[in-house]
Specification:
By secondary structure, the protein is α/β, with parallel strands linked by helices. It has helices at 13-24, 31-41, 44-54, 61-72, 90-98, 113-121, 161-175, 177-183, 198-211, and strands at 2-6, 28-30, 81-84, 105-110, 123-125, 132-134, 188-193. The chain is built from 9 helices and 7 strands. Helix 6 (113-121) packs across helix 7. The radius of gyration is 16 Å and the shape is globular. The N and C termini lie close together (7 Å). The mean pLDDT is 95. The chain binds BIS(adenosine)-5'-pentaphosphate.
């Protein structure tokens, strides 16, 4: 089973991916997390990606497809995976097709620009585990600290309002064409209202996965 979570920054892809991957025992393939790991490790790819991400632009399709193809060779992907924030361009989606990597379901999480900025500006993350919080909507038990390790939470470098607005623009221009791409591809496609509670969205996705018999 392979699932795609499509949607603008802050729509809740990462938050929901963590639940569904746990439910289904499949890995979460977040190209954003992979790039942030490369930055943390100080690799050549990380150094190049950092500048692009801080401007809110997209890393090149070749680099991303190379990363994803390598990741899919890992044994934990044998029973499927959830793509979180990938593909992000038609060329990336074509790359999956060309590699004969079939997709079963696409969930499009929808959110208005106003809410996107509110969600992103309040986001805090635990870098090591990827756990996601929000200072208003999903606060940690103790301010500024991860619930499990008690380590400090951080704000992502690309979560400033100016960069978020650039990311939204990039989404509308380069990623939104994937809506029609997948709707016309025959894959099961579900639109999810991202302006609901975390629990409501989780239940909605779970129910649709069961109904789709995947
Ligand atoms: P990436 O890391 O993929 O970021 P993104 O797609 O912009 O998405 P986000 O992680 O910002 O948001 P999300 O939808 O996961 O929301 P979350 O669940 O955290 O990419 C970063 C950069 O890497 C890109 O700009 C690009 O440069 C590069 N990149 C990555 N992939 C690439 C690719 N394939 N090709 C090229 N370049 C690529 O939720 C947000 C906040 O809201 C959190 O605080 C959360 O607690 C809160 N929240 C979530 N759900 C709810 C809810 N229902 N109600 C209230 N609050 C909620």
């Amino acid at each position: 089973m392979r699932i795609i979570f499509l949607g603008p920054p802050g729509a809740g892809k990462g938050t929901q991916a963590q639940f569904i991957c746990q439910d289904r025992n499949i890995p979460q393939i977040s190209t954003g997390d992979m790039l942030r790991n490369a930055i943390a490790e100080g690799t050549k790819l990380g150094l190049e990606a950092q500048k692009i991400m801080e401007r809110g632009e997209l890393v090149s399709d070749d680099v991303i497809l190379g990363l994803v193809r390598d990741r899919l060779r890992q044994p934990d992907c044998e029973n499927g995976c959830l793509f979180d924030g990938f593909p992000r361009t038609v060329a990336q989606a074509d790359g999956l097709n060309d590699a004969n990597i079939a997709v079963d379901v696409v969930f499009e999480l929808q959110l208005s620009d106003e809410l996107i900025v509110r969600r992103i500006s309040g986001r805090r993350v635990h870098e090591e585990s990827g756990r996601i919080y929000h200072i208003e909507f999903n606060p940690p038990k103790v301010d500024h600290l991860d619930d499990v390790t008690w380590q400090p939470l951080v704000q992502r470098h690309d979560d400033s309002e100016a960069v978020v607005r650039a990311r939204v623009e990039v989404y509308r221009e380069q990623t939104a064409p994937l809506v029609d791409y997948y709707k016309n591809s025959g894959v099961r496609y579900f639109e999810i209202d991202g302006d609901a509670t975390v629990d409501e969205i989780r239940n909605n996705i779970r129910e649709r996965l069961i109904a789709a018999e995947v």
